[in-house]
Amino acid sequence: MSTSFALAALLLLLLAAFITDMRWRRIPNWLTFTFFVAGLLYHFSIDGGAGLAAASWGATAGFLPLLLLYVLGGIGAGDVKLFGAAGAWIGVGTVLQLMMASIVCAGIIGLLMLAGRMLPSVAIKKAIRYLTESDAAESGVGVDDSGTDSGVAEKAGAVRIAESAIALSHEKGSRKVRSRLRMPFMLAVVPAVALVWPSLT
């Protein structure tokens, strides 16, 4: 079902969706609806009723599984409709293949984003551990005019600063964790297309 023309239409659809998703964080309805209808008409024109049925099943296969992810809050509605439109062009098997590759890529990218977000806190915690466990009597410690160990005071101040940084990071994270970790799904679709493309052509 994935003819050269259908694959070209798929690439055009994904390119337009990538641009809109990156720039405005949305995939417009007019884009997905236009390509959905065009896919149905194209396959009807070359294969009649059988082509229309195949395109309809492809759209259903692209739409329904991702609808569940949308309900669970994993992706946006535009992504669901995008795969429905793509399925109308490339059929059941191909759209499911692309979908699974996209989900895997999204998982990998999500883990990398999460790791990048956690690394600063981990580094600060290690610094706190070092400061609190180091010997207060080492050579850098002196006594100031007030009788206070200056080295200890400096370390205590550094610990308080580091702890405040972690608290601030966690406070911001609790308010914006979704916005920070959420990414445009098209970032995962692009590498997925590259992965499955050899099997499509």
Task: Characterise the protein shown here.
- By secondary structure, the protein is an all-alpha fold.
- It has 2 domains: 4-111 and 185-200; 112-180, no CATH class.
- The chain is built from 5 helices and no strands.
- It has helices spanning 4-24, 29-71, 77-133, 150-181, 186-200.
- Helix 1 crosses helix 2 (29-71) and helix 3 (77-133) runs antiparallel to helix 4 (150-181).
- The radius of gyration is 26 Å and the shape is elongated.
Largest beta-sheet characterization: none
- Any idea what the shape is? elongated
Mean pLDDT equals: 82
Compressed to H and E, one letter per element, the order equals HHHHH
Number of strands: 0
Helix content: over 70%
As for the number of domains, it is 2
From the N-terminal CA to the C-terminal CA, the straight-line distance is 11 Å
Fraction of residues in β-strands: under 5%
Oligomer type: single chain
Give the tags:
single chain; 201 residues; mainly alpha; 5 helices; 84% helix; 0% strand; elongated; Prepilin peptidase; transmembrane helix
